Amino acid sequence: MDPLSAYKELQGSIKETTIIQSKRLDDFLLDLIPERFDRAKTTIFKSALIAYEGFQHTASFKYRAAYNAARKSQADHLIAASSGNFGQALAYAAKIRGKKCTIVMPETSAQVKIQAVRNHGAQVVLIDTDRVSRADALASLCQKISTDHDNKPAVFSPYDHADIIEGNSTLGIEIASLVPTPDLVIAPVGGGGLLSGICLGLESAIKQAMSNNLDLAIRVIGAEPQLANDAARSLAAGHLIANEKEPRTIADGARTISLGKLNFEILQARSIEILEITEEQIAEATFLLFDLCNLKCEPTGALSLAALIQMLRNGKDLYTRPCLVVSGANVDSNVYARLINQPIVSE
Amino acid sequence: MDPLSAYKELQGSIKETTIIQSKRLDDFLLDLIPERFDRAKTTIFKSALIAYEGFQHTASFKYRAAYNAARKSQADHLIAASSGNFGQALAYAAKIRGKKCTIVMPETSAQVKIQAVRNHGAQVVLIDTDRVSRADALASLCQKISTDHDNKPAVFSPYDHADIIEGNSTLGIEIASLVPTPDLVIAPVGGGGLLSGICLGLESAIKQAMSNNLDLAIRVIGAEPQLANDAARSLAAGHLIANEKEPRTIADGARTISLGKLNFEILQARSIEILEITEEQIAEATFLLFDLCNLKCEPTGALSLAALIQMLRNGKDLYTRPCLVVSGANVDSNVYARLINQPIVSE
Asked: Using the beta-carbon criterion (under 8 Å), do A344 and B290 form an inter-chain contact?
């Protein structure tokens, strides 16, 4: 994996992340810091930077991964199993790169998500997940395409693949280039593709900065729903642990059975800490991003703010300039309306 | 008024507008163009550019005006009557410029809006608008401050003042500098401060471009709630016409009794066309900005998209690259939740 060269290759094809700062959010966060830090508060905490991927193509960071995979693949047909952001992202990336694309989705997927993939010109194969696993469906689809067209398609995991991680690493490079540099990056964890990509991107950028005699220190922390805490458990145990079934968290981007193998290795080698976030904290953070920052954010994207709030309330590990990765904006309007229809928390 | 010099002076103190393009919005708009344009559709319409002021300080374009007024004023106490975005903007601008600020608000104003002004360190004077007019309240407040502190405060209309219009003109300059340049700008109209400012800003920028042998042609159109159509009626009649009472449109930024005098003169001299938008169209456009562009927008800010939709449906005056000014993001969460809780329109 070569984050710096992927970053160069993707310029012009992906949208740069949108950096948002909000005085109202900063005031809110400052108030969370416990009393005993009172006099030092503002010297400890300066301002939170939000790296917002809701304006990315297909409205999530997944397009970085999908485009990079589509760009590097020799195959002219790309396939994946995804009911969410990766399916849309790969469909659109394939279209832009002039390739065919087929996405395997559970037949229970929301009609609007199926249609979004089809709108990008991809084929959708619906499966009954009670009767056939996604892996089996992908294998037989792959077989069928190879036989019919005498042309082996490329199968992509949404997170457990070097080109996917490398694509996501471009966000780490963008974050490292902010001035002044953040001292902490918090990102959501599902399969671990985003978090491991950010680690590699930051490291490449830091290495390059060191060769220019710049010394950057940026810590990385993951934020995972408590209901889907396989990453926290896996990293604590030192081996991959899977959830028994798909977790029912509102953060649908984190409803993965386990970390990917590659992602686990990357995170374990760096002793990345994972904070566990309750459903209530996810809902609160989604609302706060709407109310204080005017950002539309899917629940998964709010995990990073929820984690920072948890850290500040606990009054430990205070950072000057935390960067929160808000990973996407694909949320059903009725779910979102329910999340924001709360009394105003602040002001 | 000198838009170019105000633009230079305000750099670093205001946030540049956020330009958003959305493929899903463009696809939606393209579908609206009537059949008879079918073969030419994509050569006529390229892409809509959204100039989003929701990430501006105090979350609306009003901060441009307020900061410019605070910067230029000799007084050390600024006062205004405003229950909305201008009050917050002036309070914050005064704080940044080290001045006192008092905002006159109806006692029926939402508690959250009163608190937002107070949070910026300004004083709030609540009045019973059935018993005392805003003008009288401002006059007696001005008198009281002058007497008590031997120091005459400066009173600002939210729109009818040269420094206010000049502040807003900086948005016109930013829009004119986009590459490629838009051929149409649509902005909401209440008192006319934004629309007249944009006209002057664009003209200054175009004049400067001409001296560099660049020929820009940018048409400007205003978008006004049908329930508050005093600007359309005034410009048609050739003289200022006021609404009988404060109009009850959901677009609360356009609930003005009439255009300002200065604003009317500027718009009349340029024969600016005003499109009238129904409440249903405002609600639809607010939802579409959420659904297709992931933008949180107050109903007033959605007037510009509603106007473009109206133009495309009517199949006349097609533009290649319209710029929609989405003027702010201050909307109560319960109002917004109601607006977006609709079946998905598109995809």
From this structure: no
Which residues sit opposite B185 in a β-bridge?
B220, B323
**Domain final position from B126, B152, B178:** B152
Q: Which residue of A has its CA nearest to B53?
A: A294
* Residues A135, A257 within the same domain: no
- Note whether B110 contacts A: Cβ–Cβ < 8 A: no
Query: What does pTM read for this prediction?
Result: 0.94
Mean pLDDT of chain B: 93
- When mean pLDDT is compared across A59-68, A277-286, B112-121, the lowest value belongs to B112-121
Residue B251 lies in a domain: yes
If you write DSSP's letter for every residue of A201-243 in order, what string do you get? HHHHHHHHHHHTT-----EEEEEEEGGGTHHHHHHHHTS----
The vertex-A282 CA angle with A280 and A284, nearest 5°, equals: 70
Residues sharing a CB contact under 8 Å with residue A106, sequence separation 6 or more, in sequence order:
A83, A126, A127, A128, A129
pLDDT in tens, A128-161: 988 998 889 999 999 999 887 777 899 999 999 9
pLDDT category of residue A39 using cuts at 50, 70 and 90? low
Task: Tell me the three state secondary structure of residue B337.
Answer: helix
The answer on pLDDT for B346 being more than 70 is no
Where in the sequence is the domain holding B319, given as residue range(s)?
3-58+161-340
The nearest CA of chain B is from the CA of A338 a distance in Å of 7
> Is A346 inside any structural domain?
no
DSSP code, position B78 = E
Same domain, A205 and A313: yes
3-state secondary structure of B175: helix
Is A334 in Cβ contact with B337 (below 8 Å)? no
> Do strands B77-81 and A154-155 pair parallel, antiparallel, or not at all (unpaired)?
unpaired
The phi, psi pair for B302, rounded to 5°, reads -85, -5
Q: Residue A306 above 70 pLDDT?
A: yes
CB contact under 8 A, A340 and B336: yes
* Statement to judge: residues B88 and B219 lie in one domain: no
